[in-house]
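Researcher: Sit down with what I've pasted below and flag anything odd:
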Amino acid sequence: MPQLLERVLTSPNLPSLPVAAMRLVQLAQDPEVEIDDFANVISTDPALTSRVLRAANSSYYGLANNVSTIPRAVMVLGLSTVRMLALGFTLVQTMQGAQGPHFDYTGFWRRNLLTGVGARLVAMQLRTADPEEAFIGGLLHGVGILAIQGTIPQEYAGVVTAARGDHKLLAQLERQQFETDHAEIARELTTAWTLPSALVSAVSYYLDVDACPPESRELARCVGFARLLAEASGELNPGEAYRDYIASAAAWYGFSESEAEKLFLEVQRDAAETRELFEIPDWGGPNPAELLQRAHAALAELSLHAVEEQVRWRKEAETLADEVATDPLTGVANRRALSGRLTREIEIARSTGSPLSVLMIDLDHFKTVNDTQGHGRGDDLLRALAAVLRKGVRPRDVVARYGGDEFSVLLPGSGLRAAVFVGERLRQGVEKLDLRDADGKRLAITASFGVAEYNPVEHEGPEALLAQADRALYEAKRAGRNQVAHAA
């Protein structure tokens, strides 16, 4: 178990659920629960009773008649809504008790509330998940952040600042620094609270929905989608978050841009009323229309920056050409060019926290081809391999001949998982090469791949990263060749 995870789970500052909340959690998982049993638990806490009735009578639920008792609220709103509402109040109260210095708690609650409201609205509109579960999942999705903050506030402050409001980047930085992340800690914490498994999955996989168990995937998707909306509502990276929000709205739910904008505004308005129900401090700031305008402006600026980056990459490519950085046989970059580009990309990754990976590729049994078919056929094979590699990667990526029959591919912006996927795609491309011997018989061509992701703690420079990828390549060879292996 990572040291930080153990420290968090044993920390005296870790929030724990009160007795009434624990009982509500148990009842929330009992499909045969009676209304009176549920009402009795809520009634043991006068403050909780008052909050539930206040919520039931708010315009948020739009009931025609006044509700004065918990049983009546259950009858009108439904048992699922009331029990999730009561659970939400107790969880927020519990997490508010974990506050301390060196942390923007108002911003934290604003973000969590926007995520909860957004997840609920999406679930209601599309009926892909239980709306009240989606709301609680959104409220809880940052509980791991709060737990880390309560355990190591001084050490954590710099990590939070570096992430600039991007939870995906925050999780990456947490893993680099602490060997765990807030999503893993949220899973352990909500499991210890014996929350329903669907909620545990929602807070565990909201950043990686595809990895979520199928039975909870749509709930996690609602939370993951709504967190992009919440990030687009912030001040730190609204352009990137709004771009991802619009793209996910189309890809996941088929929303047009105008429909996504309408949802964005609706969430901002609903969150203001929900904030009062949960007695969360007023965060002030721009109104919904101004927030949307700011997101649009940031997106336009981001698009301009992307154009500037394309110009920069073009100039870099021209510079590399001027330095005679091309391997004359294969037409790809040579080792000198690879080293220079990798040095620059490491500097970018270190300053921005963006991922960076490299592949090392070696043809299997290349010497046999040279010995039996001649060096001319060996050269043909090297050129064919280079063509497969160039065709299978993005224009931004760098394919280089490292030496002999060994090649390398530099993947800026790609983490280990994505790089392994690229490696597997390239491996299959090599396996499909149609190269014939002098008699017209097809040669069996395969290659082995090693993958490593840049880690500022482990890799001081380009050579250390390449060496780790080379060790992974050796493991692929040792394990039988024609496969992709990655550094642990």
Summary: The domain at 3-298 is CATH 1.10.3210.10 (Hypothetical protein af1432). The longest helix spans residues 288-322. The chain has 22 helices and five strands.
